[in-house]
Design brief:
two-stranded antiparallel ribbon, five-stranded mixed β-sheet, 7 strands, alpha+beta
Length: 250
C-alpha cells in the first residue's frame, strides 16, 4: 500500500511541477534550465526530464548549441530517444526560420541580438567547420545566407573570387562572413585574419562592403569588426582582382 501511495504522490508532484513550469513560462519568469525542461516535457510526457535537462546544460553551453548538435550526437546522450532528438532538431529549424525572417525585414545593425542568436543556432553545435556568407541589400537586410563550404574538424575552404562573383550577381551592397571553430575557445586565427583582409580588399573596388566576419566557438560569437580586424586592410588595385585566385584552407 505504501508503494502505491508513493507512486500516486510522485505522479501528483510531476503534474503539479509541470503546471508550475507552464505558468512560469506564461509569466515570463522561467529560467533557461526550466525552459529546456518544459520543452522536453512535451517530447517525453511520462518521465521526469529534470535530470536530462540538467545534464544537457552542464555538458553544452546552451539551448542553441544543444539544438544544433547532429542528430546522431543527440541520440547518443543517455536518456535521449530518437523522437526527442528530432523534436529538438525541429525546434532549431523553427528558430532559424524566425531569425531569418527578422533579418530579411530589418537592418542587420539594428538586429545584433537576433544575428548573434542566428549565428549560435546555425553553427553552435557543429562538429566540423562551415563557412557561410550572408549577402545584404542596400538597406543592410539579408538577401541570402549561403553555405560557402563545409570542411573538417579544423579547416574549411574559402574562395574569395566566388564570393565576389556571387555578391555582384545578387547586386549585394555588403556581405557578412560567418564560420565556426568546433574546438571551444579557439579565437580568430592568423589565416582567418588573412582571408578577412583579402576578401575585404577584393570587394572594395566594386563598392561592396565586408560588414563583418563572425566566429562561433564554444557557445560564443566573436566579431572581427569589434576586434578591429577589419581595419588592417590595404586596398588592392582593381586590376589585381583578375589574377588567378588561390584556394584557402582556414
Amino acid at each position: 500500500m505504501m508503494k502505491k501511495t508513493a507512486a500516486k504522490s510522485d505522479t501528483a508532484f510531476h503534474i503539479g511541477h509541470r503546471e508550475r513550469l507552464r505558468q512560469k513560462f506564461l509569466d515570463d519568469k522561467i529560467t533557461d534550465y526550466e525552459f529546456l525542461e518544459l520543452l522536453l516535457s512535451f517530447a517525453i510526457p511520462r518521465r521526469d526530464v529534470r535530470p536530462l535537462a540538467r545534464g544537457l546544460l552542464q555538458k553544452y553551453s546552451g539551448l542553441h548549441q544543444i539544438c544544433s548538435l547532429p542528430l546522431d550526437t543527440l541520440m547518443e546522450y543517455p536518456g535521449m530517444g530518437r523522437n526527442t532528438a528530432i523534436f529538438l532538431k525541429a525546434l532549431r529549424h523553427a528558430m532559424l526560420a524566425e531569425y531569418r525572417e527578422h533579418l530579411d525585414k530589418r537592418q542587420i545593425y539594428r538586429s545584433v541580438p537576433v544575428l548573434t542568436n542566428y549565428c549560435l543556432t546555425l553553427l553552435g553545435g557543429k562538429d566540423i567547420e562551415e563557412f557561410h556568407v550572408l549577402y545584404l541589400d542596400n538597406e543592410y537586410k539579408m538577401l541570402l545566407d549561403e553555405t560557402h563550404s563545409v570542411g573538417t574538424i579544423d579547416w574549411s575552404a574559402v574562395y574569395p573570387r566566388e564570393i565576389a562573383r556571387r555578391a555582384l550577381n545578387l547586386n549585394a551592397r555588403s556581405i557578412v562572413m560567418l564560420h565556426n571553430h568546433p574546438t571551444a575557445g579557439v579565437p580568430f586565427s592568423s589565416q582567418d585574419i588573412k582571408i578577412t583582409t583579402l576578401i575585404q580588399d577584393m570587394l572594395a573596388p566594386f563598392d561592396i562592403e565586408l560588414y563583418d566576419h563572425f566566429l562561433v566557438s564554444g557557445g560564443q560569437v566573436s566579431s572581427a569588426r569589434n576586434s578591429q580586424l577589419l581595419n588592417r586592410s590595404k586596398i588592392i588595385p582593381a586590376q589585381n582582382s583578375q589574377n588567378p585566385e588561390p584556394d584557402y584552407q582556414k
